[in-house]
Amino acid sequence: MQQGEARILERQLIKRFGSLSEEIRQRLAQARPEQLAVWSERLLDGRRWVRFSRVTEA
pLDDT, tens digit, for every residue of 23-40? Predict the structure, then answer.
């Protein structure tokens, strides 16, 4: 299920911001379900890639 959650978030990010770096793809693939949930919620609030990319640093 975790892979599916990461893949859905990846697709949403691509649709909203365009292509993703390999670093971001790796972070998504390695993230725990709890972190994926936080990022998914923040994606809804983020208007720009810079804002979202900052939250993935944690």
Answer: 889 999 999 999 999 888
Alpha-carbon distance 58 to 35, whole Å?
9
Q: Are 55 and 39 in contact (CB under 8 A)?
A: yes
Decide: residue 25, CB within 10 A, 0-12 exposed, 13-18 middle, 19+ buried.
middle
8 A C-beta contact, residue 22 and residue 52? no
CB atoms within 10 A of CB 38: 15
| 19 exposure class (CB count in 10 Å sphere: 0-12, 13-18, 19+) | exposed
What tokens were used for 27? 């972070």
